[in-house]
Amino acid sequence: MPEEQQVIDKPESREIIAPGYTFGTVTDQIATVVLTKKTPLFWFGGFGVGLALLFGFLLAVAVLFARGVGIWGLRTPVMWGFAITNFVWWIGIGHAGTLISAILLLLNQAWRNSINRFAEAMTLFAVACAGMFPVLHLGRPWLAYWLFPYPNTMGVQPNFRSPLVWDVFAVSTYATVSLMFWYVGLMPDLATLRDRTNNRAARFIYGIMAMGWRGSARHWSVYETASLLLAGIATPLVLSVHTVVSFDFTIAIVPGWHSTFFPPYFVAGAIYSGFAMVLALAIPLRSVYGLQGLITDRHLDNSAKVMLATGLIVGYAYILEAFSAWYGGNVYEQSIFWNRMTGPYRYFYWSLVFCNIVAPNVLWFKRVRGTPALLFISSMVVLVGMWLERFVIIVSSLAQDFLPSSWSVFQATRWDWLTYFGTIGLFLFLFFLFIRLLPMISIFEVRTLLPQAKIEEEVQG
Amino acid sequence: MSDTKAKLSSGRDYWRSLDDLASTPDFEDLLQREFPRQAVGWSDDENPVEGRRNFLKLMGASMALAGLSACTRQPTEHIMPYVRQPEELIPGRPLFYATATTLGGVANGVLAESHEGRPTKIEGNPEHPATLGACDPFSQASVLQLYDPDRSQALTFQGEIRSWGAFLGVLREILTAQKGNNGAGIRILTETVTSPTMADQLRAIQKQLPGAKWHQWEPAGPHSARAAATQTFGQPVNTYYNLANANVVVSMDSDFLASGAGSLRYARQFASRRRVRDDQPDMNRLYVVEPMPTPTGTKADHRLPLRPGDIEDFAWVLATALGVAQGPKTSDNGDVTKWIDGISKDLLRNKGASLVIAGDHQPPTVHALAHMMNAALGNVGKTVFYTDSIEATPVDQLASLQDLVRDLDSGAVDLLLILGGNPVFTAPVDLGMRDRIQKAKVRVHLSLYDDETSEVCQWHLPETHYLETWGDARAFDGTATIQQPLIQPLYNGRSAYQMLQIFTDSPETSAYDIVKGYWAGQHKGADFEAWWRRAVHDGVVPETALPTKMPAIRGADLSRPAEKRKLEGKREVIFRPDPTIYDGRFANNGWLQELPKPITKLTWDNAAIISPSDAHQLNVENGDLLQLTYGDHSLHAPVFIQPGHVAGAVTLHLGYGRTRAGRAATGLGFNTYLLRTSKALWQDVGLVAEKTSGHYDLASTQNFHSLDARRHIIHKGDIAEYKKDPESVHEGAEAPPRELTIYPEWKYPGYAWGMAIDLNSCTGCGACVVACQAENNIAVVGKDQVRRGRAMHWIRVDSYYSGLENDPAIYNQPLPCMQCEDAPCELVCPVQATNHSSEGLNDMVYNRCVGTRYCSNNCPYKVRRFNFYLYSDYETPSLKLLHNPDVTVRSRGVMEKCTYCVQRINSAKIDSEKQDRKVKDGEIQTACQATCPAEAIVFGDVNDPNSRVSKMKAEKRNYSLLADLNTRPRTTYLATLRNPNPEVE
Hints:
B: alpha/beta, Barwin-like endoglucanases, Alpha-Beta Plaits
């Protein structure tokens, strides 16, 4: 078995898989990334950055737990700041993975096969990052379990009218289903790794994780059913999770939050940022690992189109939000929007308008969609824009709500930033571990894309 | 010794002083050998052993609580519980003792609440004429001062701890030496003294030692008023007012509603004439001319920002129009000229029911003109009253201080005894007090704090707080109050009475004997004991109010106005005592530092307050540093731009920039005394303000003030229009119908608590904020946290401006929790930590709170406060004694908010249930309500249609804040009305 990474000639392709691959070369190329003994230098670079930021995160959390949420820039009208912004942002990013693995599977979009694995991993890690914030932001994080309904001597249950309790269920369900879906999809590939590795320890661990997968027809049949079922369960979650997250805001009476169109707006925004993250990960990965033959320009093009479509929905939502504020004639709603556009948060607001509405329009151009570097830049712009969007919605609405006497301006502290970048570090840390230890592209699913697979099916059929 | 050690290692939670531990003969014996001079020279007849034993007797069977007794010994002299006279002390039930706080020497009668021997809260004394049950922020915060860990705790000689015996030895030597020359080398410097006992002591000293001199210096005292009285009447009469009888009031820079002697009473009387109801359709009218907006200015029906120089001009023109002076008929300030006609007609229409008040800080001429106008209007005896001075010896205090300086320079001072005060910090800068004082050979400073003056005195003596000692003082009308201690001195201090007694008598006399001895001499009847008990118990010594008199005006003295001084490109400098830390004496008091100053809402700092137009001219923004130069003195101070401040003047509040004041105060703000010379104690032309490059961060609790009319936050109107159509005040505001909610109506079978706040009465003084802080154990967070928007006050006073930037109308709005029927906070808490009670309160369960802060986000009134850090002080031993035992001390990470003082509600309910009756209306007073001088806040049961609160809510002026949100607040407001004079504009 080859120790060195396989490079396939002429990898550029408009197809969803470059011509010239065989079952063997697909398996070789993907498995080698994991099984090679030579860890590439850039991996250490990326992992190192993640680890450094992760240590920053641990420091920030240690200080947070020791002293309290006062280390952040929170103040009396703005009781939610970076933590909830980051929570919504990370949850949103997670959505692309589930959308790709579940909805596109149900819709029979074969191109998803080469990106669904790492997109799902991205989902899991994003949800892991997101899931920490609701706990970190608590005044007394050691009592976070009180948000769960569990039998207790106090005889007290959570308040089921509170959207935060709905969040607990939505996010934990989402995390569970995503993990199961991801893991079930991993099993055939884990078996492949088990069979291919020369390392006894790795074989043992992969073997345990593969749960006895032997690739029998019965296994495949069960697998297909399970995978479809999980896709069916996961599909509504794509819509429901961010809908519930948006309820945190719409249920409240805060002007700028209290709005019925938040659920679709949030879901579109989630997919928008999620696909931006997929592109932001896929483009560097495929170039450093030479995977252009598997993650082709076609994939980038498709993802960019999804981004453009959801970006337009988000843009429409902004316009509608401003219109309904004006047309609704509600004085609080109107002044929130006026203050967003002209008040202390105007730079954030106009930056997000640029990032989320103006900038993505370059994706109309085929040449931009065909140039990975430009796509990478625009996906980063969208990620920044979506973070700003959550920040502006949360913070600017709270800062200037009903009574002007209480208005004041949120100012982030270094701990806010360190906590935020720290979770990016955690994400990178987990993601780099993932690409080193597990196949980042689904081997068996990519193999079904090969022409050889289709011929066999036809022969069988 | 071993006993003592055993005691230390076992049971006792705290011991404060050696006295405390000395309750064993063993230890006393050790003390004798170790500190023989102290033991011999100052044997204490307040034997702590006896005190402790007596206390334990009182505790009776409650032996379980015996451990507590160690830290809360009651003095052995008999002090009288006020409100309830229990058969014995019941643990858990507070007792109230009448005493008095003083400010500038003038007494405010208060009731101090004592929990098992710890004073925890100050309330007004309803029987005292100055307070009538209300209380000002200074009195409220005085309990914190008592427990201030930074108070001076030891007698020191040049920084080294000494015993009282050592000091007394030195003092005796000096006194013996001075006997020979009649005490010619002795100088005593006090603040203003109104205490009859102390006056008697000082007289006795002067009799025995005729050469000794007594000087007085009260930095923020009514120097001009005193001078004007002498000038106008030939005697330093005391003036006070009755606002209840005044239909028309003209205030010439007098903040009579919120500062100065008698202000609590004036606020009460003034509010009684603003409470427009069906049965009282009219209200009084207030004209205010002032440079810097004050609480009084916010109540004005007509307010004109004037520079101090123009106020004198105004007084002349007004007096001329009223025919009492021969000054100019017009002013070069067009606004004044426009006003005068209307005001003078208004005053003349209300002869005998009008009032012209001159501010304490106005020059004597203005006061003299006010006296003459009041006399001409026939107000004397109706709205203005004169009595002999309430001060023991009214003197020109500046001259008195200058006299002392001359003696210091000539080297004539052998012993300088400074009783209270901080003259090194507060004396006019040109007197160079810091260097001059050191010319006295022996310098002794008795003071609550080891401060700037202690620094230059060899001897520093810890003074007792007023809650630790006996004493007496006179109120604005002369009424004397006997101050009784509630706790033994925490830090082995002595009172000024005891110090003075050393000069004439033996030093062993306790303050109790001194004060009681004086009054025994005064009392004519036979039954002194009963009379004394009664006087102490009531907090008012009967028949001590000074008789009113009608002094004749020596009007001829008042010549025509001096040539008015032109600005000539410079500005006018205005010095005023700080609204919260006064002359600097409360600088180390966290409650007062954190209390947002009325109008500006600044905390923890002073600033150079200027008008928006001056700010524009100087091209500065809030916090930019100005270089202020006045004469030879200069100072850097940050700008604060105050709409409504007069152009061409800079207001500087005194008291900040302390260099030696304790942990909280040292280094805060800017020492404006450095510009204050004896030539201009209050104001003068000739200040040069220049922008410098620096910036300083000010901590204001309110940054946005503009009143967006569409939000209908303040309902307001003119009285004339209101009479025609009462609904006009609510114009445009709408409340959704009651049934417009998907949740079922709450049922309140028992009580339903509610509150109504009359915005027409509220002056925005901030007393409610401090009262709430004291009652509810609200933590102090510090300047940095206030800047980060984390002040913890449960009730706040919002100020809103409407109209022109340079002359806006200012509205105050106290804002406690609204206790909504459909409370947005209750809905969103994920752990049910905030719930609706069966009596309509939004209860906050601290134990259950995990700190998601969602409730605060969803509160449209933003009354919820979050413990971002561990703000409560669990460590400092003395501050543990301060806490109200009925209220939880909140920990880090939990939300808190106004509870309508639920502990008071429950206490009254328990009382009523024991007696099988309902809680009576007025039986429960929330802390904010009890302290409000204007009685603007009324609390009660809204289920009872006859309760005061129900009646107030039935008024046509009643409205809900943000009613359009359908939160249906339990706290409602009564619209504010103005009564403008159509002739003025």
